[in-house]
Amino acid sequence: MRLLPIAAMLMLAGCSHEPQGESYFPLHVGASWTYDVSNDIDGTVNHHVQLVSVPRTTEQGNDQQVFVRRTEIPGAIGIEYWLRKDNVGISRIALRSDVEERAHLDPNPRTVLKLPLTVGSSWMVPSQPFAIVPKTELGQGDMKMPKVMITNTVEAMEEEVTVPAGTFKHCARIAGTGSLPLYLDAVQGFKNVPIVNREWYCKGIGLVKLERTELLQSNFFTAGTIKMELTEFDLD
């Protein structure tokens, strides 16, 4: 899902609760997380709020329980990701936007988190650029961006992370790297633009921080960095 900037940061009232359980990716119904998202695109910084929740479960074939994890930005269309726990870990099997009546199954499950988390373990997942997009004023607004295969690797397991929601211990740091094949211009030609994504998952909390870097020099594409930090959570 592309992260949508808004003019100013929206602050939501509420209170945080203590970490619960041993999971690095809690999925019990009723849980919710609020993030401040900061986009620095071509030197222009914008903030917006992103809300994540687990409103319900559903069932797939063979009575498999599927967790519905919802992501939304106030004023924008929400997205539901259908997740299941399997022998690999936590995988996405389908998604649905608010304008669609039914969820669309993924051709193949996408590993969100390979479990158990151990330093050095890795997995691949398809992604897309978020900061790198065509500059619409140059008439490339309808250009289809290529997909990116990201290789995620667990770099550390016992980090301490401080975000607006608090300071958390026992956090796993996962680094994702990939290359975006892109024709930049007549001078630079085709380039493999590096994309770096780092995520911190804390035991009993889930995702608390994300940093994504997509940098290049081009007159035809935007570029920049994206940062997410947990501001509130409710695991009751």
Given the structure, what is the number of helices?
A: 0
Query: DSSP strand (E) fraction?
Result: over 45%
User: Count the strands?
Assistant: 12
The topology string of helices and strands comes to EEEEEEEEEEEE
Cα shape:
globular
Q: Give the mean pLDDT.
A: 88
Major β-sheet annotation: 12 strands, antiparallel
The total domain count is 1
Largest sheet, order of strands side by side? 6-5-4-3-2-1-12-11-10-9-8-7
Low-confidence stretches: 1-15
Share of helix, binned: under 10%
Report, as a whole number of angstroms, the end-to-end distance: 27 Å
Assembly status? single chain
List the helices and strands and how they pair.
Elements: E1 32-41, E2 44-60, E3 64-72, E4 79-85, E5 89-97, E6 104-114, E7 122-127, E8 148-163, E9 166-185, E10 189-202, E11 206-214, E12 224-234
Antiparallel strand pairs: 1-2, 1-12, 2-3, 3-4, 4-5, 5-6, 7-8, 8-9, 9-10, 10-11, 11-12
Question: Would you write up a description of this structure?
Answer:
The protein is mostly beta strands and 236 residues long. It has one domain. It is built from no helices and 12 strands. The chain has strands at residues 32-41, 44-60, 64-72, 79-85, 89-97, 104-114, 122-127, 148-163, 166-185, 189-202, 206-214, 224-234. Strands 6-5-4-3-2-1-12-11-10-9-8-7 form a 12-stranded antiparallel β-sheet, with no helix packed on it. A hairpin with a 2-residue loop joins strand 1 (32-41) and strand 2. It is globular, with a radius of gyration of 18 Å.
